[in-house]
Amino acid sequence: MSKEISLEEIKKFWPKSAPNIKNVSRYISKYKKEKIVIKCGGNVLTDLQLLNNFIDDVVVLKKLGLTTIIVHGGGPRIKKSLEQLKIKSTFLNGLRVTDKKTMEVVKKTLEEFNQEIVEAIKKKSCDAKGFNASKNNIFIVSQESKELGFVGTPKRILKEKIIETLNNNIIPVLSPIGLDEEDQIYNINADTAACSVAKSLKSRRLLLMTNVEGVYDLDKKLIAEIKPLDLKNLIDWKVIQEGMIPKIKNCVDAVENGVRGVVIIDGRKTHSILNEIFSDSGAGTLIRK
């Protein structure tokens, strides 16, 4: 962990549109011995400006001495690659059905994006290390179902690799693909991958970046904080629908298995990560017991 940083030092890199800098020290104390897992998804995956904003926030956290682990998705990029190759996609319960040809595209796309994030962080004078199934695999998986094809469910996280990387003052950047016991490669839903990592590390926070502000109530108003049971009710009442259902189920699973809090935040908003961590109002919907 980095040495304590002064307010004057923070001023040198603190963004103008970020939360009040006077409160930063208080939040550093809150999180300095904790782990924060951030899942990069939504429009951040395809919009260069949003990706740069995301990288900037991650670098700020690093300079403040906080411990972060990045798990990235790749849905929009994979969709684009498949369309270019005229490979049709089908979905089952919000998950992409992945045959052998699709898996090859998924693997290539995710590995390229993984390297892109690593290089972008390094350009900001922070060290980062990429992890994917081809090298430094983190996820030991089993097949989700025959119907989904090469889609895996994490059974074990090789967290020692993550911890070693963190101890070397390097940001781990994890791609959501893994291997089974026979070294067969599988695609993993990025939310599921991030939740599995957060659970294994007992992280203080898991931030899921999306294309929505958070979770909405019956009147379509943003919910600032909600408990797992109330989320289950929103699913039963069909307030939460379609692709949000597996995301929410992952959130509930994480909170019920050692993660202190999961936050769904809008990755399209500037400094959404900093606003969530360094303000009482937060930046989305906080899910905790």
* Distance linking N and C termini: 29 Å
Using the CA coordinates, give the radius of gyration.
18 Å
Count of strand segments: 14
Largest sheet: 8 strands, mixed
| Tally of DSSP helical segments | 10
Description:
The chain is α/β, with parallel strands linked by helices. The chain has ten helices and 14 strands. It has helices at residues 7-11, 24-31, 48-63, 75-84, 100-122, 159-167, 190-201, 228-236, 244-255, 272-277; strands at residues 35-40, 67-72, 91-92, 95-96, 128-131, 139-143, 152-157, 171-174, 177-179, 185-187, 205-210, 225-226, 261-266, 284-287.
In short:
The chain is of the alpha/beta class and 289 residues long. It has helices spanning 7-11, 24-31, 48-63, 75-84, 100-122, 159-167, 190-201, 228-236, 244-255, 272-277; strands spanning 35-40, 67-72, 91-92, 95-96, 128-131, 139-143, 152-157, 171-174, 177-179, 185-187, 205-210, 225-226, 261-266, 284-287.
